[in-house]
Amino acid sequence: MLKYLVKRLAASLLILLGVSIVTFGLTFMIPADPVAMIAGRNSTPQMREQIRQQLGLERPIPEQYALYLSRLVKGDLGISYARKSEVAPLVASRLPPTLLLMLGAIVAELLIGIPAGIYAATRRGRIADKAAMTLSFLSVSTPQFVLGLTLLYLFAYLWNWFPLGGYGKFANLVLPALTLGLAGGGWYSRMMRSSMIEVLRNDYIRTARAKGMSEWRVTMKHGFRNAIVPIVAMIGLDVGIFMSGVVVVENVFGWPGIGQLMWQAIQSLDIPVIMGVTIVAACFIVLGNLIADLVSPLIDPRIRLR
Amino acid sequence: MTTDSLLRIEGLTVGFNTEHGPVRVVEDVSFDLPAGHTLGLVGESGCGKSVTAQTIMRLLPSPPARIEAGRILFAGDDIAAASLKQMQKIRGDRIGMVFQEPMTSLNPTLRIGEQIAEPLRLHRGMRRAEAEARVIDVLKQVGIGNAERRLLQYPHELSGGLRQRVMIAMAIICKPQLLIADEPTTALDVTIQAQIMELLRGLQKELNLAVLLITHDLGMVAEMCETIAVMYAGRIVETGRTAEVFARPHHPYTFGLLNSSPRRAKKGQRLPSIPGIVPPPGARGTGCSFAARCPQALERCRIETPPLLPMGSDAAACWNPMP
C-alpha cells in the first residue's frame, strides 16, 4: 500500500513535470510579446530592454525553463501582466468557488445518472428504458453554453426559481452545477445501465435469487456494489473534464472561479495566469485520479494496488 | 410411488421463445421425490437436466423461458403457478440450491460470512450479530475449519472446493426440506469432488434432506441416490431404483451411458462411447429422439414417441428395450 502510494506519487510528479514543459513551451507559441504588454504602447526602447532583462528573456531557453521550474516548486507562479499582481494568490482565491462548483456538479451527475441507469437496466427494452436513454443522449449532446443559457432563461428569468447568477448562496450553485453535471449525468446513466445489465447476468445474481431475495434487493445489494466499480474510476476523470467545462459555465453564470479567471487571462493574453491555472488544474486532475484509484479496492476487494 | 412425496413433477414441459420461434427444452417430465430421499437426474449436456432444476426454483428468466404444461407440486402446493413473491418465500428457506460453478456463484465484493447469513436475515429476520453464531455453526457443519476467520474472507481468497462448501452452507442454513444440487462437483478437481460428495451424503442423512442431484456422473448417482431418472433430449427415458437400473438397464441409451462409464471399462480395451450427439432443442423431430444414435432402432421408433412404461421393476420409454 505505502509502496504503491510512493510509486503513484512519483508518477504524478513526472506527469506534472511534463505539464510544466508543455505549458512553458506554449508561451512561445502564443502570438504576444510580453515585453510590449507590460511596457505599454508609449514605452521607449530602453524601457523595453530593461523589462526584457528583468524577465530574463534574453537568456537561453533551457535556462529560462530552469528558472521557471525553480520558482514553480516554491509556489511562485510569476506576476500577472494585466493585473500586475502575483499569480499564485490570485489562483488560490479563485480556487474554492471552482472546487465547490465541481463538487456540486459531481453530486448532480451522480444523483441523476446512477438512479436513471439502474432504473433503465431493470426495465431494459421497455419504454422507460428507451425514454431514459433518449434523455441521456440529449443531455450528453447539448453544448454547455446552450444548456446553461436555457436553464437560466427558464428557471431564473421566466420562473424566478433561482437567481440569474452570482455567488455565495446555495441557490446560486444549483443552475451552474446542473449545467456542468447534466451531461455527466447522461453519460453516467448509460455507463451505469450497461454495467448493471452486465452484472445482473452473473451467476452470483442467480445465487442471490435462489436465496429468496426480492429483485430490488438483488439489484441494490448484489448488483450495485459490482456495477459501481467502473463508475468510481470515471469520477476521477471528471475533474479533468470539468476543468474545461468550468471555463464556459463560470462565464455564463458569472461564477468567480478559475474558469472565469482563465477566460479573462486568455482574452488579455496574460501568459503567467494561463500557465498558473493550467498547472494548478493539472494538479487537481492528477489528484482526482489518485483518489479514484485508492477508493476502488474498498468497493471491490479483488482490485489490488500494485 | 408414495403419495406423501415432497416434490412431485407432473408432465412438466418447458419452452423457450427464441428468434426462430418457440423451442421445447423439457417435455412431459414427471418424477417423485419423497421427503428425505435422494433422486439422481442424469444425462448428457444439453438434455434439459439443469433447465428442469432451475424451473423447480423458477430461476429461469421469463421471458424467454415458459412453463408450457405440467405441475410442480412441492409439499402439496403447485409452485409452477406460484407468484414471484410466494417463490421468494420458498427459495433459500424450504428449498436450497447449489450450483455448478462455485468460482462465479459467489459475490466477489461481499465477505462470505455476510453472504451465508443472508438467507437467515431474509427468512428468519435475524440481525447480523444473531446470525453470526449460526453461520459459524454451519461453516463447521460443512467442514470449514477456522470458521471465525473464514467468514471475514472474500470469495477470491478461497479455493474452488471451499467455495463450494460455502455454497452448500448457504443452501442449508435455513434447514430446507429439499436441496437441489446442480452438478455440484463438475467444476472441481477429482480429489475435491469426492470430498464434496461425501459432505453432501453426510448432510443428507444428518438433516434428513430430500436431495435432487443433477449430474452426468453415474458413479455419484450410484453412491448417493436411491432412485435415478435418465434424461435424454428433454425427456425422461428411464427411471427406477438405482441398483436395478444399473444392474439391468432397459433403455439402449441408459445401457450406452453405463457402458461408457470408466468404472465399467475392461482393462486394455477402448472405452465404448455412444456415437453422435444429443439433437439440439428445435431439431427434435417425431419419434424417439435417440433413434438416430440407437443401435437397435426400429422403423416405429422414428415415427412414434415411446411413452414411459413399466418394464421389470423400473420404467423406460422404448419400443425395443434391452432384454
CATH class of the domain at 88-299 in chain A: Mainly Alpha
Structural class of chain B: alpha/beta
Level of helix content of chain A?
Answer: over 70%
N- to C-terminal separation of chain A? 8 Å
**Low-confidence parts of chain B lasting 5 or more residues at pLDDT below 50?**
none
Named CATH architecture of chain B: 3-Layer(aba) Sandwich
Helix-strand category of chain A: mainly alpha
Number of beta strands of chain A: 0
Secondary-structure element order of chain A, as H and E? HHHHHHHHHHHHH
Q: What is the approximate shape of chain A?
A: flat
Task: Give the helix tally of chain A.
Answer: 13
Strand-residue fraction of chain A? under 5%
Q: What's the CATH architecture of the domain at 88-299 in chain A?
A: Orthogonal Bundle
Shape of chain B: globular
Order of helices and strands of chain B: EEEHEEHEHHHHEHEHEEHHEE
Query: Could you tell me which chain pair has the largest interface and how many residues each side has?
Result: A-B, 21 and 30 residues
Biggest β-sheet strands, sense, barrel of chain B: 8 strands, mixed
CATH fold annotation of chain B: Rossmann fold
